[in-house]
Batch of 2 targets.
Target 1
Amino acid sequence: MDRIIVKDLNTYFGNSHILRNINVTFPENNVTALIGPSGCGKSTFLRSINRMNDLISTFHHDGYIYIDNKDIYDSDVDVVELRKKVGMVFQKPNPFPKSIFENVAYGLRIHGYDDEDFIKERVIESLKASAIWDEVKDKLDQSAMGLSGGQQQRLCIARTIANNPEVILMDEPCSALDPISTLKIEDLMHELKKDYSIIIVTHNMQQASRVSDYTSFFLNGEIIESGKTEQIFVNPKEEKTEEYITGRFG
Ligand SMILES: Nc1ncnc2c1ncn2[C@@H]1O[C@H](COP(=O)(O)OP(=O)(O)OP(=O)(O)O)[C@@H](O)[C@H]1O
């Protein structure tokens, strides 16, 4: 089933027309990679899916993004609820200067949960699901800032998971990490897709082919081609896609 359906989406920052006539769907319980050269609009697109672009005053759009048959830009959509349903992990791990435990509990607390037993259970579950539990279980009250970059990124994934999202957006989540931490996050994505739909922006073609089931290739604000990752990489339909994945530009 398709978790997200994007129809005729155009986005603008002031007069700059950034995304052009985007039509694409994202199936549930799969990883989709967004690839394309720098500045082609991948992040803008990703940030449209949880309305992060709303924070930029010049942003406007037309078209639709349906999640569970509801346009997320409808005037009655609660953006806080939307961002709970559509979590996001950023390029640079961004833990709060709080304890490991409180980083994961944070989202639960701001959404009004106050049963400490429930919070504890959910924090532990989320840390386990993010493959970091064994590394932090004996120091949950220590500052998250003392963790390595790769551990911080898995903690940020745990923080997202604690909110019980349906979709996780990842904007180059490994670009600040060493190869071993990168592999840990990639392994984690294979586990997480059993429960969540994941959309990842990556510049790393090997990573896209390792982790994703589907791939969309962006160029100059348009999607040139979308399809199963294997098809895109082995047998692209569009010449531009082939040029990009074989490293002839970008
Ligand atoms: N806040 C903003 N105001 C105006 N223009 C912006 C803003 N953010 C991004 N843009 C422009 O939108 C276009 C797409 O940028 P975006 O960051 O989405 O590309 P990208 O494909 O994610 O690039 P990269 O791979 O380098 O991160 C670029 O031309 C960029 O300059």
Target 2
Amino acid sequence: MSGEFSDFTALTNDSRIKIAIFGVGLIGGSLALCFKGKPGVHVVGHSVNPSSTEKYVARGVVDSATTSVEEAAKDADFLFLCVPVGRLEDYVDELAKLPLKRGCIVTDVGSTKASVVKHAAKLSARGAVFIGGHPMAGSERSGVEAASLHLLENAFYVLTPTEDTPPESVDKLERLLKWTRAHIVKTDAVQHDDIVGAISHLPHMIAVALVNQIAGYNDSNELYRRLAAGGFRDITRIASSDPLIWRDILLNNREVMLKLIRDWQSEMERFAVLLEEGDGEGVAEQFRRAGQFRSQLPERRKGMITSIYECYVDVPDHPGIIGKIATELGQAKINLSNLQIIESREDVPGVLRLSFQQSDDLDKATDLLKSLQYDVHM
Ligand SMILES: NC(=O)c1ccc[n+]([C@@H]2O[C@H](COP(=O)([O-])OP(=O)(O)OC[C@H]3O[C@@H](n4cnc5c(N)ncnc54)[C@H](O)[C@@H]3O)[C@@H](O)[C@H]2O)c1
Ligand SMILES: O=C(O)C(=O)C[C@]1(C(=O)O)C=C[C@@H](O)C=C1
């Protein structure tokens, strides 16, 4: 081992590290992939479902898997709770009944923090330290099939230690999380929920409401769906997120969300007034202000809407073209994460959307496809 991770084995008193992941889905699976195969590390996955445990091992995401919380938790140095927000407290309660390894670190990846941090304080009575966590990266996809070694790379990873959290435990967790290549940010759990409510939960709700509004119009005229391409697609990717994961997040953060909805309604009302009054300068000013703030967002950072790098390719309408493009990319060792035909443009035979998890892959793919005379748009 070398460089920034050379102090890794100092994370425990012996050179073996057991990491238990409860819920090996998109986030749990991505964490497992970051830890698995590192020297001395054993990653055990937990699922309530025996067929899922078999799948985790068969896909090579974990070293072993079990349906027993007790077996997964036994002697574990780090325990990651990666289940839906609505189940986090149940897992804390189960762990609180078990003989956990002294000084072990229990953390979670839930999209809300205040309630679980408060609830998990009880783990200290078992000699464990709870530190709330939230990797600010994700996808509209879910399940272990969507897990990726690179998901958290360059993303922010929020930790919410309290004043009672031993600093050496925070330090230990931070050192472990270096394997994810995410950037750690520490904040208070309540502040986390306010801010993440605004920059993540509200956009998900708006995307869903917008899609449902348009779907309603589409019921009486199919042209809505057929013409909905550029802007609509950009702002609504996250509307395809997992319904149960988001049910739990929004219910858990409901007080914050109710205030944010009211503020959103005021923003829309402001637009309504500007339009009623025919105030063109006022409308333009709204766009100027938004553009200015948006231009200051971190570029191509994982997390929020930009976690996937995409390009669009005009494709002639003949059988085999999709396979041909996928093969060209594969032969050039470019990792394609998704490929989708979009039938929204009437003027060209078809448009293929290619998605990548690395900006590098996107750049290589556009260069390659352009060199092969394809029309590529960003
Ligand atoms: N999806 C995202 O973009 C994202 C990003 C950051 C954090 N998170 C948080 O990560 C956690 C997991 O989300 P995910 O996107 O990985 O979801 P996922 O559906 O991909 O994975 C959830 C895991 O929990 C298990 N699970 C589901 N319901 C369960 C239940 N009732 N009891 C026990 N286990 C159950 C599933 O088998 C799966 O292994 C959530 O708390 C979510 O808020 C999600
Ligand atoms: O990129 C996405 O699909 C996401 O929704 C990721 C996202 C976000 O809103 O930024 C979603 C939920 C999380 O808790 C953290 C990250």
